[in-house]
UniProtKB/TrEMBL annotation:
InterPro entries: DNA_brk_join_enz, Integrase-like_cat_sf, Integrase_catalytic, Integrase_DNA-bd_sf, Integrase_DNA_bind_dom, Integrase_recombinase_N, Phage_Integrase. Belongs to the 'phage' integrase family. Gene3D superfamilies: 1.10.150.130, Integrase, DNA-binding domain, Intergrase catalytic core. This is DUF4102 domain-containing protein. Keywords: DNA integration, DNA recombination, DNA-binding. Residues 235-430 form the Tyr recombinase domain. It comes from the Bacteria.
Amino acid sequence: MPRQRLTLPRIAAFKPKGDGFLWDEDMPRLAVRARPSGAKSFIFKATLNYKDIRITIGSTDAWTIEAARDEARKFQRWIDDGKDPRDVLRELEEARASDEAAAKAAQEAAKRAADEQSRYTLRALCDAYTGHLERIGKGKSAAATRSAFKCHVFTHEAIAAAPAREITSHQIAAMVRKVREAGKERAAGILRSYLSAAFNAAKRAPFDSVMPADLIAFGVEHNPVDNIPAIAVQAGNRTLSADELRAYLNALGDELPDQALRLALLAGGQRMAQLLRAKVSDYDADTATLRLWDGKGKRQSAREHLLPLAPKAAALAAGLVARAKEREQKRAEDAGEVPGDVGGMWLFSTHGKVAMIFTTPGKRAAEISATMKCEPFDLRDIRRTCETMLAGMGISRDTRAQLLSHGISGVQAAHYDRHAYTDEKRAALVAWEARLDAIEKGEKPAGNVRPLRRKNKNAA
């Protein structure tokens, strides 16, 4: 069939019996190919290096005649330049796919960055760190840390919502400065310390198997707190006089918080948080020994702290054990069950399900302090009073350290000194109860206690 200028009517009228081609007069390389099925498409046909090239442009229903001619002219220009249009189209398709892949990768990277910005924030790091403290048994530290972050970090909403790894020293300094300028110097120092610990934990997480794996995702590579100078905490110096201690003892009643305060005092000034974690199984009635667990400091596991109690403290501990048994007996009777083992029950628990929180006795001590109309004091001041008086009684520094479970660290204590100090601690607590009895009666101290000497196993 001779060439004709392609028009819509001619294309519509073109109905060959088999495959047929209707060639365009305006663009000689362009034709309409008709199939027996009735389908029609624009094609381009040319020769390059003595080889025929045929390319389907597209359906006549989808392409206009002019668009098909433009496409055919483009193919012809490539051939005139010695390029196979199929190769050029393949390269263009590969480039388009590459661009799409790059765009998709960029989009995914932006999405990940946005996800990290929303998930791995300073607030999230603070929450993850306090959760870590709870999991390793440092409940009191976790509560104090969470409170500090809530009051002094989360109130800076923009900083708290920023990615933890992008937090700057200037931002940390601004938070610490605000607390310090409010007259809370101790709180400022504590805040700095807690933030430093959180960032250090995240920084070490990729390399230290002790650290939780969920801290790795924060991507912290430096600690912005390092540039902030530490704020020295002023050491407390409040101690109670004998008259104040007498008034304090007389104010203690039979309520459970008061019993906790009394036992902590009779036991030489024990830390309240450790005392409240004691369970029934921690008291050995045969030896009148109370076992506490000291998790204070950087210990990964709590250290056993044994207290051979003097008579009054032992009677108080035995009464708490009996109280727990009575509570379990009543529960079992009400439920129609056989009483269970009380070993896992808390010594200090109002309803038996959870231990008394450590702030409850502290609040009670503050109430007593207020009623005494003296210089205010708290549990730390009572603990300091106990050690000061024990020192005045002639109790050695080593025995006091073992009795109060502080300052026990270093190579010697960790690996070599396996002496239990049981006799020394028991003698100290017996002497301490006698001293408290004298204070309650208004008597003057009888004199210093001679410290026990260790027996020399090598002596003849």
